[in-house]
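lol ok so funny story. i was supposed to be doing the assay writeup but got distracted and ended up predicting the structure for this chain instead. priorities right. anyway since i did it might as well share w the group, maybe its usefull for someone
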Amino acid sequence: MKIYFNNLNGIRFLLAFMVIILHTAAIKQHNGLPNYLSDAPYLYVAGEIAVSLFFTLSGFLITYYLLIEKQKTNTIRLKLFYFKRILRIWPLYFLAIILYWLIIPNLSMGTMLNDLPAQMTGRFVIFDENISWATAFTSYLFFIPQIAVICSGLSNSTLYPAPHLWSIGVEELFYMTIPLVLWKARETVKTLSTLTVGYYFLPVVFLLLLKISNYKVFVFVLMFISVNSFCCMLLGSLSAYLYIHHSQKIIGYCNKYVAFTACAVFVFMIAKSIFFYWFVRELYCFLFCIIMIYAIENKTVLLENKVISYLGKISYGIYIYHNFAIAIIIYQIKKWSLDTSSLSTRIAVTLTITALTILIATLSYEFFEKRFLKLKSETHATQ
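and the output, tada:
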């Protein structure tokens, strides 16, 4: 059985790049600068769906490694798993909180992110409760920043200066629950299938409850289910199970013809800006699972390129720091009144932001994150 998927690092970077394109355009639009969103709405869809695909990829990898361990040892070392996740996620996450909550708001470029959350996450905002700074900050500290997304009108950037960290909270919830599910499950495929289908139809229950009574708590739960995207992760988990236990069949099904068809449908849906419909996000993730398994089993020059692979390795940092890089560049654009209306300058701005993000993420990975990753490796070796 494989224990490392080099191709998936390349996919990680491509997804991160799609998010950078979306957020660059969104923040430029928010600051009254020319952007892609009005001319190319499909870029908005691509960026939005990239986060869901990240979830699917995480679901696949985490479940794969846990099931391989269970297959070899007949158990899952929960303490070791949680400790390794802490070493990978927490240091950079808390550094990001310091950066976005305590440093950037006090800098001139911090104005580039003012009122941004409402712009970037408006479809999630259901209340306008004007929650306190302390409440919002606490939600971040306890890895539930998505609560701030749902519960606040987000009209004040000091309450919510790092909207993109909501996805880290989603992943942490999944990391907390899926090992316990796999550890206890006697029939893994039935358990994962039941959870996937159940979570998919759960919003219907609360939609019916809302028809009966318009309690805010029902709205909150409905949006919490939607934001947390567990269905996307569980599709990745199911793919991992099938890849391990029915590898020959799955590899046969995910041949080049099926993978090409999945790619064609995927691209067509993005080109037509198909996104805000029930089941569509899950369809994207299903198609992605086919493409992902094909990529694992077949050499792809682009995805196996050493540079692309390294960029995928630092994709967590790229995701964390990209809003910081966007704020720096857009602040300079506004400060010097630069004309970015032409297509070439828009592309140049995006590439500059990407390059700066990669630089910051590389420095972070080499001089900060590696210290914890080394400890993670040493801990695994001693177990």
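The radius of gyration is 21 Å. The chain has one domain: 6-382.
back to the writeup now i swear
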